[in-house]
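Appendix B, Record 12. Input sequence as logged:
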Amino acid sequence: MKYVKTLAIAILFLMAVPASAQSTLDKWPAMKTFHEVMSRSFHPVEQGNFEPLKNFSQTLADKAMELSTKEVPREIKTERLMETVKRLQVKTQEVNKLVKSNASNDALKKSITEAHDIFHEIVGLCTSEKH
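Logged structural output:
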């Protein structure tokens, strides 16, 4: 019986983490939109398909810029978050420049993977920092 209670508590805890991240994205429409473009651009690259990245690199950079120009929810807006958003903006601009200069697929994959990692840093900051 003790095992069942422990398992139930663990499952509830694990379910709460994604819900927290999702509710943060729901409160930050610009981040939700960025996430949609990032998903369309990044995940095909993992499968060797670079066309979506090439088609959406400008949109990705534009949506990254909107992360600081559109309203950021007060409960998550910290200096550290905004510094990380700035790093994401710089990285997505770099991705777009690489696409426009017909860089190699290896260079594109490295750069978009770095941008994706920064995106996940931001999601982590949105769910871990408490005020």
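The CA atoms of residues 18 and 127 lie 9 Å apart.
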